[in-house]
Design goal:
about 290 residues; alpha+beta; Coagulation Factor XIII, Chain A, domain 1; three-stranded antiparallel β-sheet; 7 helices; about 20% helix; disordered N terminus; Cellulose/chitin-bd_N; metal ion binding; glycoprotein
């Protein structure tokens, strides 16, 4: 019984520390020192270990840490990854150009998804999503090829809003409300010579987390939000639709031996310093169990 419950504990922890989705092509933003400075060392180490994780889980890692600055980190924009860490990784596109995406999805979770042009300074979606799915990575049908290998077309009407490196990103966004997990990954890019939105036009005041979508899915409308950074508990319901409050409280993660006793009273000495420590601890525990 001791071995059985220990393996259950391991399985539960592994499900928490391993994430489920990220862009593999084009080369996306990656974590670096700029992210570390605003999101904290703990969050930075977590992303080095597991870039596939979800925003809610990353928030649990970062929240409460003394070096976590929620507003400056802004987990709802590219999961807190910063342009300053990716200045050498900027694509130059032309209006009308097709860009092929490859997405790594490790575990399916039924949800909604899209790729949109996001104005980084305001965290606002420019125009409509470039591609979207109303039923994404379904657990019933599995992940389909068109959800992980697809192309988008660079819009021809965004004017000069994305002319400079760091102005805009192509953000892949996947939300699975049933498990309260949201995944984001971004590609830095520039585009010049586009149409009528140049000049004094500004990005739509639509959060990258909030895009109003009608019941027909194909009709997308903008919705104004307060520019104050969105609390972690507020997230989209469908395709980045209207913001919703999370229906469940954040799950508790064991933080000490007393939190996770074995069935026979044996305590599990659970580390909390970093995700890498968790993995080392799991390997050590699994080795001990196999030796027994």
């Amino acid at each position: 019984m001791k071995h059985f419950t220990s393996f259950l504990a391991i399985a539960s922890i592994i499900s928490l520390v391993h994430g489920h989705g990220f862009i593999s092509s084009p080369n996306p933003r990656m974590p670096g020192n700029a992210m570390k400075a605003t999101c904290g060392a703990q969050a930075y180490r977590n992303e080095q270990f597991d870039k596939y994780d979800n925003i809610q889980g990353l928030h649990q890692v970062a929240a409460g840490q003394p070096d976590y600055n929620a507003a400056e980190c802004n987990l709802w924009l590219c999961k807190g990854y910063k342009f300053a860490d990716n200045k050498e990784n900027v694509y130059s596109y032309k209006a009308g150009e097709k860009v092929h995406f490859t997405i790594d999805i490790l575990v399916p979770h039924t949800g909604v998804a899209n790729v949109s042009v996001v104005h980084a300074a305001s965290n606002a979606v420019i125009g409509k999503p470039l591609i979207f799915w109303a039923n994404y990575a379904s657990v019933a049908t599995g992940v389909t090829d068109d959800e992980t290998n697809f192309s988008i077309t660079i819009p021809d009407d965004i004017g000069s809003q994305c002319a400079k490196a760091g102005d805009c990103v192509l953000q892949w966004y996947w939300d699975a409300p049933s498990i309260d997990q949201t995944y984001e990954s971004c590609v830095d890019f520039t585009v010049k010579g586009t149409g009528p939105r140049s000049g004094s036009a500004k990005p739509s005041a639509t959060s990258s987390k909030v895009v109003a979508v009608t019941s027909s899915v194909a009709s997308v409308q903008s919705q104004t939000l307060n520019p104050t950074p969105t609390p972690i508990a507020v997230r989209p319901s469908t395709l980045a639709t209207s913001a919703r409050q999370s229906a469940t409280a954040e799950p508790e993660f064991p933080t000490s031996a007393a939190d996770e006793p074995d069935s026979d009273g044996t305590e599990l000495d659970f580390p909390t310093d970093s995700a890498a420590d968790v993995l080392d601890w799991l390997e050590s525990l699994l080795g001990d169990l196999l030796d027994d």
